[in-house]
Amino acid sequence: MDWTAIFNLVNLLALIAWGVLILLPRWPALLSGVLYLGIGLLCLIYASGLIGLVSGLLPSGGPSGGADFTTIEGVRAIFGNDAGVAIGWTHYLAFDLFVGLWIARDGDAKAISRLIQAPILLATFMAGPLGLLVWLIIREPAARKQGRFS
User: Fold this and answer.
1) Whose CA is closest to 117, among 138, 133, 98, 93?
2) Residues 54, 26 contacting (CB under 8 angstroms)
3) Which long-range contacts (C-beta less than 8 Å, at least 24 apart) are formed by 74-80?
4) CB 125 within 8 A of CB 18
5) Domains of the chain: which residue ranges?
6) Which of these, 62, 69, 44, lies nearest to 3 by C-alpha position?
7) CA Rg, the chain, in Å?
8) Spatial distance between the Cα atoms of 149 and 135, rounded to a whole number of angstroms
9) Cβ neighbour number for residue 123 with a 10 Å cutoff
């Protein structure tokens, strides 16, 4: 298994989806493409890789054994080989892109300028939770104005 190729593929897929989300018009078909061809495909790659590793169907290129999420040493071991890094990175990319899509849709629904959204989306792309935190702060007045927090 060429984990470097998978890593490069998921990076390219995420980069294209983020470019669409930030730069292109928010047509329903494009947003559906980000959801299903971007996030959905990343989730499929992640799930396939995780199930393949856990079941032993895919080689990890590192020491075998169960994943231990209860200690820092256990988590370090999970990311101690190319398979763990590629699958873990895909996990981050999928969730950050999902959050970015929610930010874009939420911002449009609350009539928040795309000029304000763009740097927040970029922050979410580069540092997911930081971008989300900034968005939650920025959206608060618009959510109160609309009388809802969803």
Assistant:
1) 138
2) no
3) none
4) yes
5) 3-146
6) 62
7) 18
8) 13
9) 19
pLDDT at 63 over 60: no
CA distances 132 to 67, 75, 93, Å, are 28, 24, 14
* Assigned token pair, 146: 């609309």
- Nearest Cα to Cα of residue 123 among 113, 134, 137: 134
Measured CA to CA, the distance from residue 54 to residue 1 in angstroms comes to 15
Helices 114-126, 128-146: axis angle to 10 degrees equals 150
Predicted confidence (pLDDT) per residue in 109-139, tens digit: 999 999 999 999 999 999 999 999 999 999 9
| CA atoms of 40 and 10, how far apart (whole Å) | 12
Confidence of residue 149 (pLDDT cuts 50, 70, 90): low
Q: Is the pTM of this model over 0.85?
A: yes
Distance CA 29, CA 36 (A): 10
